[in-house]
From TrEMBL:
<dbReference type="GO" id="GO:0005506">
    <property type="term" value="F:iron ion binding"/>
</dbReference>
<keyword id="KW-1133">Transmembrane helix</keyword>
<dbReference type="InterPro" id="IPR036396">
    <property type="entry name" value="Cyt_P450_sf"/>
</dbReference>
<feature type="transmembrane region" description="Helical">
    <location>
        <begin position="6"/>
        <end position="22"/>
    </location>
</feature>
<dbReference type="GO" id="GO:0016705">
    <property type="term" value="F:oxidoreductase activity, acting on paired donors, with incorporation or reduction of molecular oxygen"/>
</dbReference>
<protein>
    <recommendedName>
        <fullName>Cytochrome P450</fullName>
    </recommendedName>
</protein>
<dbReference type="GO" id="GO:0020037">
    <property type="term" value="F:heme binding"/>
</dbReference>
<keyword id="KW-0812">Transmembrane</keyword>
<keyword id="KW-0472">Membrane</keyword>
<dbReference type="GO" id="GO:0004497">
    <property type="term" value="F:monooxygenase activity"/>
</dbReference>
Length: 66
């Protein structure tokens, strides 16, 4: 019975809380700089360069207009 309660009450409540908190992190009045489109759930975590960052950022500036 406890696992059923968790599945139908706790997990949806946790998901709603996480969505609300993630939307509150970015102020609505400020626009983010242009860049590659984010992926679902991970955003741009895998787009960040590990070496020679300046070259990737310069390429993004040319491609996305900065």
């Amino acid at each position: 019975m406890f696992s059923t309660w968790i599945q139908f009450v706790f997990l949806p409540a946790l998901l709603v809380t996480l969505v609300i908190l993630s939307r509150r992190r970015i102020p609505r009045g400020l626009k983010l700089p242009p860049g590659p489109p984010p992926k679902l759930l991970v955003g741009n975590a895998f787009d960040m360069p590990k070496e020679r960052e300046w070259e990737t950022f310069a390429e993004w500036a040319r491609e996305y207009g900065m």
